[in-house]
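Example 473.
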Amino acid sequence: MGDPKGFLKVKRQASDFRPVCERVKDYKEVFQIPSDKKSMEQASRCMDCGTPFCNWGCPVGNYIPEWNDFMFHGHWEKAYRLLDAMNNLPEITGRVCPAACEYACVLGANDDPVTVRENELAIIEYAFKKGFVKHRVCGSRTGKRIAVVGSGPAGISSADQLNRYGHSVVVFEKAEKIGGILRYGIPDFKLEKWILDRRINILKKEGIKFITGVNVGIDYGVPKLLKEFDAVCLAGGSRVPRDLKIEGRGLKGIHFAMDYLTQQNKRVSGENFSEDLIDAKGRKVVVIGGGDTGSDCVGTAHRQGANCVVQIEIMPKPEGCRTDDYPWPSYPMILKTSTSHEEGGERYWSLLTKNFTGKNGRVSKIICKKVEFSKADKKGCSLMKEIPDSEFEIDAGLVIIAAGFLHASHGGLVDNLGVEKDERGNVKTNENFMTSIKNVFSAGDMRRGQSLVVWAINEGRRCAEAIDKFLLG
Ligand SMILES: Cc1cc2nc3c(=O)[nH]c(=O)nc-3n(C[C@H](O)[C@H](O)[C@H](O)COP(=O)(O)OP(=O)(O)OC[C@H]3O[C@@H](n4cnc5c(N)ncnc54)[C@H](O)[C@@H]3O)c2cc1C
Ligand code: SF4
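Predicted structure in complex with iron/sulfur cluster:
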């Protein structure tokens, strides 16, 4: 450990962001990568606490204190090697991870936590800049062929690991480009797509074959899949959106978040799309759903030139800091203000959407009602009660539903394979990621339900290990 008193001398200094007035005019990344000197200073705050809960808090188990120490001493390549040992996509988690590690940081118990996510990003970007990140040449091949269906973070991580084990891996993707939600969900202002392409180009050089525009289970039949591959990893995500089945839902101008975000991501990259344009320009936009997906829609609507943006959420406003319900080092449910929220708009909580009304077939208003929640019962369920006479209207020229996702898509691959599903409708596996079919495995959102990039990476890695054991013992 470099400086035992580093945390006493240096205050936490998180990323700088581009000024709001400048960044809302484009889709470029909003944050600025800190200088190497500043990152090394921040790394000095890691205080050799003895029991690094950050490592426990990070779903991929990153060696955080160790790489902070290497970084502080200027041993960047060693820091990179450690990071690479646990995380297949640090340049992505370094940008979009909610950083559970920081909530578990021991320094965070009575001071501001170490800037773990920023340090992770600093290491990997330094490694790319200095050429430490090179494609590996695979020595000998095992002769086993594995199909990975889906190219989101779970599919990419699984394929990367399987390829490192020496298996021949083909990744199938039904979209035109690789990346899953990293490509088509998360906006460029959080994750520019060249960052994804940079990684994929390395994986291609390492021997992974990517086939896009193929919907496995439909364009590529199940019998052929099972015959041609020794094992299959299903990493198709969890994309069935939660709908609002209320009066007026059929009006024009009401869209699901992923349809809206996918289209904008395609517009930024110049990809064609056949659906009608969804554009917030000059409109009053209401985003239903207070989570991260909703926040991405808020930022996108601002950039498209919305008149005003309102985000509503059915749940109550979370506390601004940890409560007794979420003691350190657990990941707390607290109010999060994203860079998109800083760019404008209003947020309302405890609001139930009752129905939509419209003019000439297009939505013009949302009718809302205030709700309150009773304290959770013994089963942890809290009851929602509508507050009488609290109905009011919000003008809405464009409505985006960002109310979460129910489960993996069933038609096509899942039904044609006939794999068992769990009670929520996701693909069921045993503890070794194996589905009800012997050589078919599953990982990521398709198995655990809509989650986080870092959990998808964790699942992809563990699933790859299970497949390797299954094939080679
Ligand atoms: C808008 C949005 C923003 C988010 N922002 C964040 C964030 O900031 N930070 C964070 O940590 N998490 C975020 N998440 C969650 C995170 O992106 C997901 O948990 C993660 O992408 C899941 O990875 P995955 O590989 O399991 O699935 P996905 O990323 O969904 O990828 C699945 C892929 O499988 C393909 N596929 C499906 N079926 C087939 C088939 N039959 N044949 C071929 N291909 C198929 C799909 O086309 C897709 O490309 C966000 C989610 C959304 C929706
Ligand atoms: S992947 Fe996420 S949780 Fe893990 S060290 Fe990076 S920021 Fe923290």
